[in-house]
Design a protein that fits this description.
Length: 270
């Protein structure tokens, strides 16, 4: 496991109380109470006075994509859609909170289950409200989310009905991808080559690294993967040349469009 995970009960007043397994808030309080929540964004909520961020998902933004600026006093439509879906689930009441870690702002990151037993992240992904953003150590869970996302994407549900969120062709969509600088994006294409630099491994989708799409993995990240995970899980990484893969992450302008890979599940061999 890459990062240790523990389950918690989110106590009244926003305190975290450790537990050995997922804790039912309702059961702990005589089966009478389910905590309420307020959606703060498409992937975060205020629950019992504390801010909770949903792990392994991200809500895309439409404004500023392709140079569009947000109209005055307008809520981003993708964010609004995700917030509405999240609030609908929170209105069922929160019974389980699975704690992963805190971010640099002190917010708790983890998973939420409603009083009806619904895994909130899974439902949001299945409805096409959010995109999978692998971050936690629970690879099996993330792979399940990726499967749900593929079904929602193929069906054109939610955000997948918008052209902005299509899977971009990493071999031909250089211009549109440059315009998505800073946006979480899915790209797919055939790798031209791999190159090991002094600090990074480069997965190049074209022969001209100065203009073509590239995915990068820092050497220290690769070492951590091999140190903390089963080696067999990365055998595919050594045989990617000329293979078609899908990569997800935030696009940066580094020569051509570039995506930094920090989690193995950001890369999907196809």
């Amino acid at each position: 496991m890459m990062v240790s995970r523990r389950s918690v009960l989110w106590g009244l007043g926003g305190g975290l109380v450790g537990a050995n397994s997922l804790v039912s808030v309702a059961a702990q309080q005589g089966g009478q109470i389910r905590l309420s929540g307020e959606a703060l964004s498409g992937t975060s909520a205020r629950i019992d006075g504390g801010e909770f961020v949903l792990a392994d998902i991200v809500s895309p933004r439409r404004w500023r994509a392709y140079g569009r600026e947000a109209p005055p006093n307008k809520v981003d439509p993708f964010t609004a859609h995700a917030m509405g879906e999240l609030q609908e689930l929170l209105d069922l009441g929160v019974s389980n909170l699975d704690f992963w870690k805190r971010d640099r702002w002190g917010r708790t990151i983890g998973r939420i289950r409603t009083g009806e037993g619904i895994d909130v992240q899974s439902r949001l992904v299945a409805r096409g409200a959010v995109i999978v953003r692998p971050r936690s150590d629970d690879w099996s869970y993330i792979r399940g989310l990726l499967s749900l996302e593929a079904e929602a994407r193929d069906a054109g549900l939610g955000i997948w009905a918008w052209r902005d969120n299509r899977v971009h062709n990493a071999n031909t969509d250089t211009g549109p991808l440059l315009a998505r600088n800073g946006h979480y994006t899915l790209v797919q294409g055939r790798l031209a080559n791999q190159y090991d630099g002094s600090a990074r491994r480069y997965l190049n989708f074209g022969e001209d690294y100065k203009t073509d799409v590239t995915a990068t993995i820092e050497k220290k990240v690769l070492r951590r993967w091999h140190r903390e995970c089963e080696v067999e899980a990365f055998e595919w990484l050594e045989t990617l040349k000329s293979r078609t893969i899908r990569v997800r992450g935030h696009v940066s302008r580094i020569n051509g469009p570039s995506i930094a890979v920090t989690h193995p599940c950001q890369i999907e061999p196809l």
